[in-house]
Design brief:
Number of domains: 1
Largest sheet: none
Structural class: mainly alpha
Shape: globular
Number of strands: 0
Number of helices: 12
Strand content: under 5%
Length: 269
């Protein structure tokens, strides 16, 4: 690999990384400001205790979610982080090939002395670097937010870092899925609809499976990437490396599939 496409992709898009990162950093501070004292945390717990447990389970909330700062941050920030970062992943996946083919830019890129697989690999790595950059800025927001908390924060820096790392495999999987669909269907609008539906349906399947709380629903729920994310409990349980590896392998298979399809297709004119 020459690295030219990688560097050019970063040069053109690095500002997006900063903007997305700052947005998530601000969002990361929010949970620590929600409860200025122990009494506020207890009040929040009392409010949620009044709801139906099955209803709360659909959102990943249980009896321990608001009993500590770790539970609050796990639900309020990490519980929704993969869903929100998936928006970036879908945009990035479309930018790997579909958007540039529609705009006629890909023809110019392929006129350069580069192989097709290099285009996909270097652009994919560039967007993964940006994803990590976004999450690194969000991590700084978490650390800053914890320093503002008036309640003792029962979360170590390592646990915060594990929470951030836990998002990466799922977000990369969504990115690779979008890139694969973009090359497969050859229509940006259709690829956007399919990738967006994949994320939304996956999220709904996970929520409904939690609420149903039976073996059949739990089995069906396993097809959802969110079922393997476990963001609401990551600060309490830590990383599950088996899940990280599984999602990473699926993302890798989708990336290889994208490369093979791209090598065999014509560029839109």
């Amino acid at each position: 690999m020459t690295g030219t496409i990688f560097v050019e992709t970063l040069r053109r898009s690095w500002r997006q990384m900063i903007y997305w990162g700052l947005g998530f950093a601000i969002y990361a501070i929010y949970p620590f400001l929600m409860v200025p004292n122990e009494a506020s945390l207890e009040t929040l717990k009392d409010i949620t205790d009044g709801f139906n447990p099955e209803f709360l389970a659909a959102f990943g909330i249980d009896s321990t979610s608001f009993s500590s700062v770790a539970g609050l941050v796990g639900y309020s920030f990490f519980g929704y982080l993969l869903l929100m970062i998936s928006i970036f992943s879908v945009i990035a996946g479309l930018n790997i090939s579909a958007n540039e083919e529609d705009n006629g830019i890909m023809d110019m890129v392929l006129s350069l002395p580069v192989k097709r697989w290099q285009v996909i690999v270097e652009k994919l790595f560039a967007y993964i670097v940006m994803l990590i950059g976004i999450l690194a800025i969000a991590f700084m927001g978490l650390m800053f937010g914890s320093s503002l908390s008036q309640i003792e924060v029962d979360i170590t820096t390592t646990r915060f870092l594990e929470g951030i790392v836990n998002v990466i495999p799922g977000a990369v999987l969504v990115m690779c899925f979008t890139a694969f669909i973009g090359v497969l269907v050859r229509q940006r609008s259709l690829a956007t609809a399919i990738a967006g539906s994949f994320v939304v349906i996956s999220y709904l399947v996970d929520g409904i499976g939690r609420a149903a709380n039976n073996d059949t629903a739990d089995t069906i729920r396993q097809i959802s990437i969110f079922a393997h994310y476990n963001g609401t409990k990551i600060l309490e349980t830590g990383l599950t490396w088996g899940t990280v590896i599984m999602l990473s392998v699926i993302a890798g298979v989708l990336a290889v599939g994208t490369i093979e399809l791209f090598k065999r297709r014509d560029i839109a004119v």
